[in-house]
Amino acid sequence: MAQKNTLTTSMTSKTTPVTSTISQLKPNVRHQTLLARVVRKWYRPEFLIPNQHATIEILLLDIEKNIIQATVRKLLVDRFDPRVVEGVAYKITGFKVAENNGSEVATPQPFRLYFEIGTLVLQSPNSPIPRYGFSFQEFGDIIANDSLDKHFIDVVGQFVGVGELKKTTGGHPIKTVKLENIELNEGNDPVSSCITQITNEHTDILSTDNILSIKEIKYCQRAGDYVTLASIDDLESSIGWYYDSCKLCRTKVELHQDNLWHCKKKQCDGFTKGLKTKVPRLILTA
Fold first, then answer.
1. Which of 12, 81, 97, 224 has its CA 20 to 30 A from that of 158?
2. What dihedral do alpha carbons 179, 182, 188, 193 form, nearest 10°?
3. Whole-structure pTM over 0.90, yes or no?
4. Residues 186-212: pLDDT tens digits?
């Protein structure tokens, strides 16, 4: 009698990663997916080599209006820089979730994301995630709460002055910008406070001598960068009150499928080549 051998095999199927919110992300778990919008993107310069990028830092906003910081390390900067555009929503898969520490911690979240060589970034053009993730802080809370000094914060105030350009002990140019609270106290006097902002002494627009009123700007015949001191009377919500412009010629730009901003002016280099960044410009009426 022939002996019948039974061969048992096991089969595993690959499952599609479930899209998580920021609050659901867990460290040391692979193949997590996040749907989020890039609300801010900036570069951290290489130590002693300011014209080279050490990392790309990104703030991601999800549908629950939570914000988390993401970091792209130096070796992957060229890979992800053109693929991640400020203001665009993405479905991101295959990142690392680790403890939120380092020299630049932008959010109070316990974790941050790290892009890896296998991280997949796909645009989500119809995402319901809002464009901005503001979380405004009261001036009094900023002064009273030392923990707010550790992270990025949002404020609303009236711009009333700029201090002299100075340098820190580390050699960084720094300037004191004075903001005045729009709300009035019991004596009808504006509540004011000062905040500081790291600036670049070579490109700081606030140090220009080209100071004009809104009326003078309207009739100005010479292109250039100008500074004006004004109070916000009202916000126009029926039409856009700013537009994304070309940094070469200031014409309106549009985001194309190559993740570059293309100028609408055909004579501009930004029309054919595209630009990695755009410049928001205000629409003034007087």
1. 224
2. -20
3. no
4. 444 444 444 444 444 444 455 556 777
